[in-house]
Amino acid sequence: MVVLVYEMSTPLYPLGETPGVREIIMEVIMQRITWQIGIFSILLTLALPSFAQQATLDILTGKTAPLTLKLGQLDGAWRCISPTPPKSGADTFLLLIASSQSHQPLPVNVMYTKGDTVAAGGEVYLIAYNRPPQPQPTEEQMQRREAAKPVPLTADSELTLCLLNIRTMGSLLDIRPFDLQQELAENKEQAKMSLRDAQTASLNNLRQLAIAVQIYAQDHDQTLPPMDNAERLKVMLKIDLAVFTKPGTNEPYQPNAALGGKKLAQLPDPAQVVVYYEATPWPNGLRCVAFLDSHVEVVADQKWAELKEKMARP
What we know:
The protein has two domains: about 70-180, no CATH class; about 190-310, no CATH class. Helix content is about 35%, strand content about 20%. It contains five helices and ten strands. It has helices at about 20-60, 140-145, 180-220, 230-235, 300-310, and strands at about 70, 80-85, 110-120, 125-130, 160-165, 170-175, 255, 275, 285-290, 295-300. Strand 3 and strand 4 form a beta hairpin. The termini are far apart. About 20% of the residues are buried.
């Protein structure tokens, strides 16, 4: 219940004097104005919270801006931006993240905006859309040290609404016009770089395995270890178990079983002798291989077929 307290205004005529008609009319007008101003002030105070609530509700229901968009829906009126982290961690930087597929926090990288803003809760926000987050590895994948399979960016990729607090957000970097084909090409190139990084990590693992085999032979009268039991080799080579598996897939590397128990002197050209290799090729069709002299290579199908033929020879 709202209680209005009304207080008469001070008379316009001096105390003890009889007012005239004009003075009485003016007093009535001023009293009415005072009354109306009081009512308006109270109504405004009561209405402000509802205005803020309505603004937030409009955002959450998608009335202010769509909660999601497809990348292919954007046109030349949009801009690509790379916002830096907010100045203050106490303020909300990403007010709204709308995604039907993921509840993971979205990384601050490339976003898309037309420069529109919205006010809510006494703050002004820049309306922007973020790329979909890459899937996170499951608990089972993490236990196996596997990475989640990356999802490529396409015209149908779903962008999620983000509100960037104008007052607290950092700088906007790399502002450029939106071009769909350029975005897809750059994302494809980044995926290739990720693949190259994984292959580089695999080559490093294989090199360590080849070196461990050499050290074993030096410590055992120039004799190679039994190579027909991968699990037994893990114990005999005495190196980090993570080195025995392919990065991203946790697939075990395969030893060349034909080398087991041989003397190094029986292998005059160690640079041509495969000691460890990847069981399956990468998505680009290439395969990482380690040789007995501890050098490593990334080989195509034809080269791999030649190496397999040599491995099969007694």
